[in-house]
Amino acid sequence: MSHFASGSDHRWRTSEQVSTIAVQTGGFVDTFLKHTLGNYTVTDDPTRLDPRAMHAYLQRAYWSEQIPVEVIERAVRSSLCIGAYDGGGAQVGLARFISDYATFCYVCDVYVLEEHRGHGLSKAMLAMAMSHPKLQGLRRWMLVTKDAHELYRPFGFTAVTNIDRHMERIDPGIYKRATLG
């Protein structure tokens, strides 16, 4: 089921049904979520992901400038990814979730191509993640954003309260140096 925020009290109300897709692979049946939003589809089906389309956007995003396509391919293999697709099936958005599926989830690489914004796709991808069976019962969700705070607030995200407890190790020029070498 798809859930959308109801005001600022962070309670969720059912908006529309999310269908499931069963895919037989190697004797196993994988079940994926799928939500239709107008002419768009949002799904966690990894077979729909297009690394070249993701690379086209992410290589110019402020957080991953010049990222190699090989890094994106490796990253999506180790993440739960929710993609947004237009009526022709082209990937127009992504939200990536790195999790141990027990205690923690890091939200990253959330985007919708400029020409497809304003249709609720980012919210639909986040709503699918918030209600995703693999991401339930987690103690902590985290993300880093420069300018999308208002997108995340309705889903219960707030500024870090005990900033002195958080540390990071960051190498902002890693992809730029890799392309020069």
Give an overview of the whole structure.
- The protein is of the alpha+beta class and 181 residues long.
- The protein has a single domain (3-180), classed as Aminopeptidase.
- It is built from five helices and nine strands.
- It has helices at 51-58, 69-77, 121-130, 149-152, 174-180; strands at 3-6, 11-14, 19-25, 28-37, 40-43, 80-85, 91-99, 104-112, 140-143.
- The strands form two sheets. The chain has a seven-stranded mixed sheet, with helices on both faces. It has a two-stranded antiparallel ribbon with strand order 1-2.
- The longest helix is centred in the last third of the chain and has 10 residues, at 121-130.
- It is globular.
- The termini are far apart.
Secondary-structure blueprint:
Layout: E1 3-6, E2 11-14, E3 19-25, E4 28-37, E5 40-43, H1 51-58, H2 69-77, E6 80-85, E7 91-99, E8 104-112, H3 121-130, E9 140-143, H4 149-152, H5 174-180
Parallel strand pairs: 8-9
Antiparallel strand pairs: 1-2, 3-4, 4-5, 5-6, 6-7, 7-8
